[in-house]
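dude i think i finally got it to work??
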Amino acid sequence: MNSAIVVKLVALEFAVLVLAGPAAAQTTDGADAKLTARLEAEKEARKACKVDICKVLAEKKGDGAITCDVTKTWLQAEIQSRILGDRLTWPWGHAQCTTRIEIERSDLVKLVATSEATVKLKPHALSCVLDRKAPEVGEAYSVKLSVAPEITFKAGKATSVVAGWSNIEAPILAKGPIWAATATDNNLHVLSGAMVAEVNTFMFAHCDGVGVKITAPQ
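look at this
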């Protein structure tokens, strides 16, 4: 498997999870009721965390840390259409990722309350389970790694997100390629643009979806 596929998925997933924002509207397209219920439960469980973050960004004030556990499942079809398109084929099934968010409200305020600011968040551990692609059977693949994102805002919008990858744990056949790709991103920041888009979409679309309006700068 091309190592960039794994890294891009994990990068986008982290951008979503660390800001507690959902991806595009998901549908299981006739999949079983258990998966549908899982998606709905994950979305509802993320809502309170998302509201807390949105309020700080909108009000530009707040003290103390926002701490919450968030989980997000990317559907196999969503990974293919949204991330890979017709360029590459996703070889696995659905991907479920979990992280514990710990963000200081003062860091979020700093990003949006000044004309330009850069904040480096504390390291976050990210765990993903990649299902086997039907009709394959067998144990799901487990990938773990840490990220310590450095986010830059200018005029109220994200302009750069540097992931800061480390502590990779993965099956032996996957660890080498993942390590090589994350090292490349650490040095060249090739995934920054994708993560910037996720952050700005969260602020100006997903926050509005939970009743918190953030006015985009002119």
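The first helix runs from residue 3 to 18.
im so relieved honestly
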